[in-house]
Amino acid sequence: xxxxxxxxxxxxxxxxxxxxxxxxxxxxxxxxxxxxxxxxxxxxxxxxxxxxxxxxxxxxxxxxxxxxxxxxxxxxxxxxxxxxxxxxxxxxxxxxxxxxxxxxxxxxxxxxxxxxxxxxxxxxxxxxxxxxxxxxxxxxxxxxxxxxxxxxxxxxxxxxxxxxxxxxxxxxxxxxxxxxxxxxxxxxxxxxxxxxxxxxxxxxxxxxxxxxxxxxxxxxxxxxxxxxxxxxxxxxxxxxxxxxxxxxxxxxxxxxxxxxxxxxxxxxxxxxxxxxxxxxxxxxxxxxxxxxxxxxxxxxxxxxxxxxxxxxxxxxxxxxxxxxxxxxxxxxxxxxxxxxxxxxxxxxxxxxxxxxxxxxxxxxxxxxxxxxxxxxxxxxxxxxxxxxxxxxxxxxxxxxxxxxxxxxxxxxxxxxxxxxxxxxxxxxxxxxxxxxxxxxxxxxxxxxxxxxxxxxxxxxxxxxxxxxxxxxxxxxxxxxxxxxxxxxxxxxxxxxxxxxxxxxxxxxxxxxxxxxxxxxxxxxxxxxxxxxxxxxxxxxxxxxxxxxxxxxxxxxxxxxxxxxxxxxxxxxxxxxxxxxxxxxxxxxxxxxxxx
Length: 595
Hints:
With 595 residues, the protein is of the alpha+beta class. It contains 25 helices and eight strands. The protein has two domains: 21-403, no CATH class; 456-591, Sandwich (Immunoglobulin-like), CATH 2.60.40. Helix content is 58%, strand content 11%. An eight-stranded mixed beta sheet has the order 1-8-7-4-5-6-3-2.
């Protein structure tokens, strides 16, 4: 096959010097927007970190506590909801066995996988699309924005979400591998095997990986690649899907996909809202309208695939395949979740695929602009529109960051209760779906000093404060203990809350500890905004100076003190001179809910 001369390259060469400079400047602005989005995602991960597992992960820990062996084929293959999460479980097992289950490895892996995905798109735009200069920079910046957008903030707070970023990465790699094989012909068998191996990895990253095989097969037939390649894809795909559904059990809590087809209006509304929620996260009608527009544009892209084959435009074919993959993912999600209501379409984790869908549509617009003419104005308009979208994203970015921080703060507060043996039902219900599995998992983690029991905080309990830290004067800190509420669930304890500020370093303290007779009885975590802190200390305005946590119940007539732990080297403890009100705040209780 003779690879064509790309019209977009020739188009750029026909621009005037002023037009080229403006396109170049705007493309660098788009790249900077993409890089800024990556920085925001990493920042979200750092400020919303919690070592406490959440929700699905307790299913794993309960099974391991009952005797399942991490890395064993039986456990790796065991069905989780509708998924066979073989690769995700491998990541989890490494985190548990090597990194003490602290989730640092998992969260770092998510960021690295996302970076690889952005790098993959930058590479295929250059290799399959022949994009160069301003066009390539604009496309790469767009994909960095859509892949790292913090809207699916759960990806940056929950290590379990490794599966959500592995699946689209391997799907894109598989489709790109097939197109590279088509481009280079019979001497490029390595790309065919790359495509097949990536499809297998997608298949066992999430359930939607099963969609990759029919897309590969139909595209291979459309491209008229060698029969041996077609039969290899067909046979491997059939074997992989058959193995996936061997002894498969449909989750009873999910809707029957066949029955969902009997409600086409609700099904299509869910599908449209799934994608439209990227733009309108509150109104179902507006989200469905925007989603319908996006789906219509994607169908136009898909219906032109024969034309793209005739014109040898592999990048357009790749965009159509990825859009179909995202649409298929949304459709299967809608069919299996329709019983939970249309509001389920707004789940933030689904934005992983919805944003990839919109990113591909944006790339399709750029590809169309540069294959239909040499005038620079459409590109300039597209770049300005992208920058406007980036600006809107920047203005709205505080919301997902706040959601992530609130989620992590609630988890960290729950950790302080579990560390001292308080199993308050309201906390347990926010952390895991089944309390029995949570208790099994906590027992397993405690015995092996993993996860929330692996850090420094549990080792502080029972130690003298002046032995654990150098005690400093109260001049270096400010704050008050505002709430002290008895809790009797499991071990008798006390819920404490207030605010603290490190005046010495002009920041929030690392944490807060409570003592009885100078022995540390509990730890409270920072990360909550409190109006009382802003009123009492103007320097703390706008900060996360509020703390909350749990402590062991002191015996009568024992002096209880609260210390802020400052970021000195080594850390120092500063006494907070304050009293408690002895009652709970309904406002505080609402803000501590794990989302």
